[in-house]
Write a structure and sequence with these properties.
With 161 residues, the chain is of the alpha+beta class. It is 50% helix and 18% strand. Helix 2 runs antiparallel to helix 3 and helix 3 runs antiparallel to helix 4.
Length: 161
């Protein structure tokens, strides 16, 4: 039998190789183990999701706030008074009249208010008032009160100068 003798440097090198390879195997086992654990965790999470129904978040709705009828009416009054032509004013009048139960709906204009008792200008109808706006191009009144019929159409209007 032959006896091998190793120099201390060679022995240190061989030991480093042995420990290095064994360390790589341990790291691989740890990596395999962590992969297995990750898969187990994922499976457990999927099972929990199946058992507990998750409420889906509703889609974000974009709510467009439509202007109130009073605001729309004030906008029509301004459009009629500032119309560039008679035709465009007449078109705006026809659109505004669709908000009313009929073109004979009464319009009261408050000219003075002392406490709770208002003084009104001479009563008129919505048709006459809209044509007055078209002719004078003067829109000083604002909607103060609106009375609706059962169909949601305006049946009486109170304006304030």
């Amino acid at each position: 039998m032959k006896k091998y003798t190793f120099s201390p440097l060679t022995l240190a090198f061989l030991l480093a190789l042995v420990f290095g390879f064994s360390a790589c195997k341990n790291k691989k086992q740890l990596a395999d183990m962590s992969d297995t654990e990750a898969i187990k965790e994922q499976m457990a999470q999927e099972e929990m999701e199946e058992e507990i129904p998750v409420e889906e978040e509703p889609e974000e709705r974009v709510v467009k706030k439509e202007p109130s009828k009073e605001t729309r009416l004030n906008n029509y009054f301004s459009a009629i008074a500032s119309a560039s032509s008679t035709a465009s004013a007449n078109s705006s009048i026809q659109e505004a009249l669709t908000m009313f139960s009929n073109s004979e709906a009464p319009v009261l204009i408050v000219i003075y208010k002392d406490g709770s008792k208002p003084d009104y200008d001479e009563p008129t109808t919505i048709g006459k008032y809209l044509n007055y706006l078209k002719d004078t191009k003067n829109n000083k009144a604002r909607v103060e009160e609106v009375v609706y019929d059962t169909n949601g159409k305006i049946k009486e209007l109170v304006l304030r100068k």
